[in-house]
Design a protein that fits this description.
It is built from 4 helices and 6 strands, in the order ααββαββββα. With about 140 residues, it is α+β, with helices and mostly antiparallel strands.
Length: about 140
């Protein structure tokens, strides 16, 4: 295995360990100052209720976004199911159960984090999941027709 892959694996393991243990400051410390952060893609009229999503371009914006998520949702559990690393790229599969604070409704998702790591920092992060369970929980169990 190449040194680059090993360096990426080290950063990815630290990222996922911090996330799954709720150590958000440690996780945020692994981001490059000018990280490109793509947290879902907003679709007007569909996922507008997810106030923390969108594309951000700095670790400060990401910290603010994490604060918005934490204000709206409480993570009950997160577990890393799989991790694949090659060169500067890593993909982690996460199982998450969270609760929407306003409605008290839980949602359960499987989502992928795609990471690009350079010089020991995450320079690009992108997530993918089906957000329908999140939207249902935010809307109190109702889903728009």
């Amino acid at each position: 295995m190449s040194d680059l892959t090993e360096q990426t694996r080290d950063v990815a393991k630290r990222w996922f360990a911090a996330l799954t243990s709720g150590e958000f400051p440690a996780a945020l410390g692994l981001l490059a100052d000018d990280v490109e952060w793509i947290n879902y893609r907003p679709v007007p009229g569909y996922n507008d209720d997810m106030k923390w999503i969108g594309t951000l371009h700095s670790s400060a914006e990401v910290a603010d976004s994490v604060g918005v998520f934490a204000g709206q949702c409480e993570v009950i559990s997160e577990e890393l199911l799989d991790l694949v690393v090659e060169g500067e790229k890593a993909a982690g599969i996460i199982h998450e159960i969270s609760r929407v604070k306003e409605t008290g409704i839980d949602f359960e998702i499987i989502f992928t984090h795609w990471l690009t790591v350079r010089n020991g920092r995450i320079v690009r992060w992108e997530s993918h999941t089906d957000p329908s369970q999140i939207i249902r929980a935010i809307r109190g169990g109702a889903v728009a027709a």
